[in-house]
């Protein structure tokens, strides 16, 4: 299974996107990507995934993938991700989650940390 590390504003790998499930590096599922929307395990909308960038609900950048590029916002170099633990089975997507389009966003860092986007 291919996975995509997601980095915080300092270039540290925090989550991994495995198909449509977001995992932490302990192998715990933390959320889902449904279309462009990011949901936590309880089905709460937490942000957006668009153009290799994680946006919070206020359209501010909280994380990014290695190949992301944003005009007018410098993304730091990434650290080598830690070795992940084996993933736990992916949970069911909560009922009621729907695709949401990411609004037009101006690239600026959020006050929120990527580590806090998806609570345990």
Strand order in the sheet with the most strands: 1-2-3-4-5-6-7-8
Q: Which term fits the overall shape?
A: globular
Q: Structural class of the secondary elements?
A: mainly beta
Count of discrete alpha- or pi-helical segments spanning 4 or more residues: 0
Low-confidence stretches: none
Strand proportion = 25-35%
- What is the total number of structural domains? 1
Radius of gyration: 13 Å
How many extended strands?
8
Brief overview, please?
The chain has no helices and 8 strands. The protein is mainly β and 120 residues long.
Describe the structure.
With 120 residues, the chain is mainly beta. The protein has one domain. The chain has no helices and eight strands. A hairpin with a 4-residue loop joins strand 3 and strand 4. The protein is globular and about 40 Å long. The mean pLDDT is 93.
Secondary-structure blueprint:
Blueprint: E1 3-7, E2 13-18, E3 21-24, E4 29-34, E5 37-40, E6 45-50, E7 53-56, E8 61-65
Antiparallel strand pairs: 1-2, 1-8, 2-3, 3-4, 4-5, 5-6, 6-7, 7-8
